[in-house]
Design brief:
By secondary structure, the chain is an alpha/beta fold. It folds into 5 domains: 215 residues, UDP-N-acetylmuramoyl-L-alanine:D-glutamate ligase, CATH 3.40.1190.10; 149 residues, Alpha-Beta Complex (Protein-Tyrosine Phosphatase, Chain A), CATH 3.90.190.20; 84 residues, Uridine Diphospho-n-acetylenolpyruvylglucosamine Reductase, domain 2, CATH 3.30.43.10; 112 residues, Uridine Diphospho-n-acetylenolpyruvylglucosamine Reductase, domain 3, CATH 3.30.465.10; 80 residues, Uridine Diphospho-n-acetylenolpyruvylglucosamine Reductase, domain 1 (Alpha-Beta Complex), CATH 3.90.78. 30% of the residues lie in helices and 24% in strands. The strands form 8 sheets. Strands 3-2-4-1-5-6-7-8-9-10 form a 10-stranded mixed sheet, sandwiched between helices. The longest helix has 19 residues. The two termini are 48 Å apart. Bound molecules: uridine-diphosphate-2(N-acetylglucosaminyl) butyric acid. Uridine-diphosphate-2(N-acetylglucosaminyl) butyric acid binds next to helix 17.
Length: 687
């Protein structure tokens, strides 16, 4: 199979006559060390809002665009172009944007000159205008003499100039001047001078493409940002939790400065360094990057598939930050404990910022969840309700058909058959009761967790404080076939969906046979098998937010990935519409048989939670564990299966502690011997 570099493929796509556009599209390529996702997203958002229906390919998920890429029917193609691997020269854009250039990716480039040369090639290949930021010295030097250069930014001489920039409680405002005349005012929902500059780039590009300033400004006022770019995860009168991708010292400074602009709040930040090489080469620069944070929790390096470098770790940055005189910095090696540290320190009025490009987004989700449940700072234990109160209140408020139990053993509710008790167990009778339950938990700071059939779940031995919810009531379990579509509630078994499809002679869902989960669990995890995954066959989803509001959305507007769907980190799946393809019963049955046979011959039959780890890019986790010779390794009654290395089986009487120790053991061996960072696929629940 030919393998083509991403940049070359993207460049070819932009020229492609096969796109929906009626004529070869005009391409707009956005490059720069920082801000390219936001700027390319702003341009695509404005073009879309103004009816130009652009094609775009952006390196982040943009909710207002319904994803990260689309083939639009219009004449423009907007692309974010990455400089990290020297492929910038592959592009031959109609117009280009250069945001900023500085030392970065020193694993690839020998020095700053190497990076400058790459950008010079990009500029040279541009056939139309080169939009460049006049405030960035390296960029200005490279582009200011360009015959078709158009500058933007705060600088006095910028052609599209940001003036009178002000922070507002919900973002920022500024005036745009063009060649000496005032064009008008822009309201942006994003804070920070750097975002005003990014917006100026979008305005310069879109006006050049023929749009009017007023329509551009109106569209920018509705831009809500990209995931993990100053993303507000939780907001209340007391707390603001923000998640951001910043991982370079310049980005960290800009992000923290922008967050400061939101008002006089104390900022508590956590940062996960990204890549050993960046930590090594820019270690000293990180020292001064956190002056904008009142308190900082640093954790260890996210390897991003790089091998470890001796003597380089999160402590490298910790030492640099301390040496730069930061008054309050701590180091927490274990990412799973970062949320505890942040929450223990937080007080009402604080802004909690979670920063980094690795898997620290999980900490942002965890912090948002726990702040929402009131498990923060001194308030953490302030729920005025006793356990009896909670039980009695809920029993009185919920319908008689709703199941509500106390001290329910979770070992019974999971395929692993380990774990302590749930303080409360609830099976709501329908969506109304689920909404009532969520409202009660929110108002009374009672934590809650929604689980599926417990087939991908490890509950800790100490059990779960709060309410564990399962959508097991008949009202959530319906499966109905209408034409080529199968409507299924979140509580339905995947097996029932597959059987309904078979009965109706609808093919395409066979891979789900044998996944022991529910529809809700499969959506949350984007569960998969046999090289396929859930979202490939889902057409629509129905879900509830934690305020009890119900939504329905086409699957095409939902961001999902291998073994994950971020939407369901803070929303509850209620059901889905699956789409099958008509086929003969025989074809379907043959495929079901083949898949069952593969499963039974390659996977163990003892109690387990399926695959424990996600497959890393380098090698399937099972193969890796096999190659490391870890099959058969036992801790207590938990054992790595001899049949498949990515399964931990319960030999009868295993504890969650046994399993967790075995997981840590495997992770350590994979890290030490192969430089691979394994990530758990099983959900771990409990105190
Ligand atoms: N392999 C070994 N040794 C082992 C296990 C596997 O060498 O002990 C090799 C196999 O020979 C094969 C490769 O590793 O060449 C991949 O193995 P397999 O085909 O079993 O697939 P997998 O990647 O390990 C994935 C899913 C399973 C799903 C199967 C079947 C993940 C983490 N796992 O396993 O999903 O059932 O494919 O399609 O993506 C689950 O998610 O819980 C799960 C079980």
């Amino acid at each position: 199979m030919p393998i083509i570099r991403r940049a070359r493929l993207l460049a070819a796509l932009m020229e492609s006559p096969f796109l929906s556009g009626k004529r070869p599209p005009a391409s707009i390529c956005v490059a720069g060390i920082h801000g390219k996702t936001t700027t390319s997203a702003m341009i695509a958002h404005v073009l879309k809002a103004c009816g130009r229906n652009p094609s775009f390919c952006i390196g982040g998920h943009i909710p207002s665009l319904g994803g990260n890429a689309a083939d639009g029917a219009g004449e423009f193609f907007v692309a974010e172009c990455d400089e990290s691997d020297g492929t910038l020269v592959e592009y031959a854009p109609t117009h280009s944007v250069v945001l900023n250039i500085e030392e970065e990716h020193l694993d690839y480039y020998r020095d700053l000159q190497g990076i400058l040369d790459a950008f010079a090639g990009f500029v040279e290949n541009t056939r139309g205008r080169v939009f460049f930021c006049a405030d960035d010295p390296n960029t200005a030097k490279l582009c200011e003499r360009h015959p078709r250069g158009v500058s933007f930014g705060f600088a006095e001489g910028a052609r599209y100039r940001v003036a009178d920039h002000r922070h507002t409680p919900d973002g920022s405002r500024f005036t745009v001047r063009h060649a000496g005349a005032t064009l008008g005012e822009v309201k942006l929902r994003l804070p920070g001078a750097h975002n005003a500059s990014n917006a100026a780039a979008a305005i310069a590009v879109c006006m050049t493409l023929g749009l009017k300033f007023d329509e551009i400004a109106a569209a920018l006022a509705t831009y809500r940002g990209a995931e993990r770019r100053m993303e507000v995860k939780f907001e209340s009168g007391d707390y603001l939790v923000v998640d951001d991708y910043a991982h370079h010292p310049t980005e960290l400074r800009a992000t923290l400065e922008a967050l400061r602009g939101l008002g006089p709040r104390r900022i508590i930040a956590a940062f996960q360094p990204h890549r050993y090489t960046r930590t090594k080469f820019l270690g000293r620069q990180f020292g001064a990057a956190f002056a904008g944070a009142d308190k900082l929790v640093l954790t260890d390096v996210y390897a991003a598939s790089e091998p470890a470098i001796a003597g380089v770790s999160g402590l490298t940055i910790y030492e640099a930050v301390k040496a730069a005189g930061h008054p309050d910095v701590e180091f927490e090696k274990d990412l799973d404990r970062v949320a505890d540290r942040l929450l223990a320190a937080a007080q009402p009025g604080d802004l909690i910022a979670i920063l980094g490009a690795g898997d620290i987004y999980k900490v942002a989700d965890e912090v948002a969840r726990r702040v929402r449940a009131g498990q923060v700072g001194a308030q953490a234990h302030q729920s005025a309700k006793t356990e009896d109160d909670i039980f009695n209140d809920l029993r009185a408020q919920l319908a008689p058909e709703t199941v509500l139990l106390r001290n329910e053993p979770m070992a019974k509710k999971t395929t692993f058959q380990v774990g302590g008790n749930a303080q409360f167990w609830c099976e709501p009778s329908g969506e109304d009761d689920l909404a009532k339950l969520l409202a009660y938990c929110g108002a009374n700071r009672v934590p809650f967790f929604v689980i599926g059939r417990g087939s991908n779940l490890l509950v800790r031995d100490s059990g779960v404080k709060g309410v564990v919810i399962r959508l097991a009531h008949a009202s959530f379990r319906a499966v109905e076939v209408r034409g080529e579509r199968i409507f299924a509630g979140a509580g339905a078994k995947l097996h029932d969906v597959v059987m309904a499809a078979r009965q109706a002679s609808l093919a395409g869902l066979e891979f789900m046979e044998g996944i022991p989960g529910s529809v809700g669990g499969a959506l949350r995890m984007n569960a998969g098998a046999m090289g396929q995954w859930t979202f490939e066959v889902v057409e629509r989803v129905r879900f509830m937010d934690y305020c009890g509001r119900v939504f329905e959305r086409p699957a095409g507007e939902i961001h999902y990935e291998y073994r994950g769907c971020p939407l369901f980190r803070d929303h509850i799946a209620l059901g889905a519409v699956f789409k099958g393809v008509p086929a003969s019963r025989e074809t379907i049955e043959n495929r079901l048989k083949a898949f069952q046979q593969k499963r039974w011959s390659t996977q163990p039959r003892e109690s387990s939670a399926g695959c424990v780890f996600k497959n890393p890019k380098e090698i399937p986790a099972g193969k890796l564990i096999d190659e490391l010779g870890l099959k058969g390794k036992m801790i207590g009654k938990a054992r790595i299966s001899e049949v498949h290395g990515n399964f931990i089986v319960n030999d009868g009487g295993a504890t969650a502690a046994d399993v967790l120790q075995l997981i840590e053991f495997v992770k350590r061996r994979a890290r030490e011997e192969r430089g691979i960072e394994l990530e758990t696929e099983v959900m771990i629940l409990g105190d």
